[in-house]
Specification:
This protein is α/β, with parallel strands linked by helices. Helices cover 43% and strands 10% of the residues. It has 14 helices and 6 strands. A 6-stranded parallel sheet has the order 1-6-5-2-4-3, with helices on both faces. Helix 3 packs across helix 4, helix 3 packs parallel to helix 5 and helix 3 runs parallel beside helix 12. The N and C termini lie far apart (55 Å).
Length: 332
């Protein structure tokens, strides 16, 4: 029972919600019907938690690297702004005007050097609305529009679809655009930003769920009581899975490339970043951690110079199956 389920501020509208707390109920019919089931995704990390959540014992459990002919992803963990102050969306830091300004300056800098499209994910609609309002008062939005058009995801599906269409047109025209969106929203789960539509994805903060939700509290209690999964373990697992899903929008083919910016000091902690998928971690080296904005900008420029070179077709063929082999496999 949510005492105030209304989306209209000030309106009291109690809502009764029915929620499934046991994920295994949804997949158990498949296990009963089929003798072999393959569960595969790019965002299953950390992989050891899924057997507990879904109620099965895996015969094979493997996390794989991405097969690529060049370092097509540049993940960066930005922990400080240009003034060297830490950046984070932790509750106690959200009202800090310095953090808000640093996030804005970071985006202005990225928009000035990254071509085509940039997608930015926030932790919630309310935080995105607050920070956009603050950026407007600081003049940061005006600075952004000097280099790119700005589009914003809303809770209205029609408005968001129209914004996405116009975002793509801006990228196609060469004007470039930045799309401000929300983790767990429509854009993070169903929209691809391949090629020039997504040369950079910025994840502002760690997208933890709203922990005062009655549904989430009930699920956390169930997981702890029945599956011995600790509350913080599940929240970390869920947040890092969402972050991976957001930044994964940027890479969609063997010839694609893009930047993944994780902008929060908490990503520098081993217990957080170790839960990222292996296909991200394989590109994340020590010198890409704990960066201030100037150091990050330097690496971005170098990466974009390298990726602007023509694709080495012979190297590309080493990670593709020959057509003859594909045909033999289809016959077999």
């Amino acid at each position: 029972m949510e005492p105030n389920g209304s989306s209209i501020p000030g309106m009291i509208e109690p809502v009764i919600q029915l929620a499934c707390l046991d994920s295994s109920l949804a997949i158990s019919p498949l296990f009963k019907r089929f003798s072999s089931v393959i569960i595969t995704s790019g965002t299953l990390s950390p992989i050891d938690l899924y057997p507990k959540l879904l109620g099965f014992t895996p015969r094979i459990s493997e996390s794989l690297n991405m097969s690529t002919f060049r370092p097509c992803i540049l993940p960066l963990v930005i922990t400080r702004g240009s003034d060297q102050l830490p950046v984070s969306t932790r509750y106690e830091d959200r009202g800090d005007i310095g953090v808000t300004r640093n996030y804005g300056n970071m985006l202005v800098e990225l928009c000035s050097i990254v071509p085509d499209g940039i997608v930015v994910f926030f932790t919630s609609y309310s935080y995105m609305e607050t920070i956009i309002s603050d950026w407007d008062g600081m003049g940061i939005l005006r600075q952004l529009t000097k280099n790119k058009l700005v589009f914003i995801e809303t809770k209205d599906v029609v408005e968001t679809t129209l914004a996405l269409d116009n975002y793509r047109r801006a990228c196609d025209s060469g004007r470039g655009a930045v799309f401000l969106s929300v983790a767990r929203g429509k854009v993070s789960e169903g929209i691809n930003f391949d090629r020039h539509y997504g040369r950079c994805v910025v994840m502002i903060g760690v997208p933890f769920q709203y922990t005062l939700s009655h549904v989430l509290r009930a699920r956390l209690e169930y997981l702890n009581t029945h599956l011995q999964i600790r509350e913080q373990d599940f929240l970390n697992f869920d947040a890092l899975r969402q972050a991976s899903q957001c930044v994964g929008r940027v890479i969609r083919s063997k010839t694609d490339y893009g930047l993944m910016v994780l902008a929060d000091s908490r990503y520098n902690r081993h217990d957080k970043r170790s839960k990222l998928p292996k296909w991200i971690l394989q590109f994340l080296s020590e010198h890409q951690l704990n960066l201030g904005l100037p150091e990050a900008v330097s690496q971005v420029k170098q990466f974009l110079r390298e990726m602007s070179q023509p694709v080495d077709q012979s190297a590309l063929q080493t990670v593709l199956l020959p057509i003859e082999e594909v045909q033999r496999m289809s016959v077999g």
